[in-house]
């Protein structure tokens, strides 16, 4: 089973789109959990949280 699928959008050279398969979407709760854990431990590790400009896991699934 594949986590990601590759979609060609036209003749070569064409942009290629990668997206999660339904099976790949099942890993999103794990990824979100790691993100939350990382944010909770930033202060302990001396890290700095940069402004979040990326989409959340929920935004990626459409």
Automatic annotation (TrEMBL):
<feature type="domain" description="HTH hxlR-type">
    <location>
        <begin position="1"/>
        <end position="46"/>
    </location>
</feature>
<dbReference type="InterPro" id="IPR002577">
    <property type="entry name" value="HTH_HxlR"/>
</dbReference>
<dbReference type="InterPro" id="IPR036390">
    <property type="entry name" value="WH_DNA-bd_sf"/>
</dbReference>
<protein>
    <recommendedName>
        <fullName>HTH hxlR-type domain-containing protein</fullName>
    </recommendedName>
</protein>
<dbReference type="InterPro" id="IPR036388">
    <property type="entry name" value="WH-like_DNA-bd_sf"/>
</dbReference>
<dbReference type="Pfam" id="PF01638">
    <property type="entry name" value="HxlR"/>
</dbReference>
């Amino acid at each position: 089973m594949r986590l990601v699928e590759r979609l060609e959008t036209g003749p070569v050279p064409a942009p290629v789109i990668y997206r999660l398969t339904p099976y790949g979407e099942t890993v999103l709760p794990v990824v979100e959990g790691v993100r939350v854990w990382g944010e909770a431990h930033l202060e302990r590790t001396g890290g700095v949280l940069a402004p979040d400009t990326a989409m959340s896991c929920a935004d990626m699934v459409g």
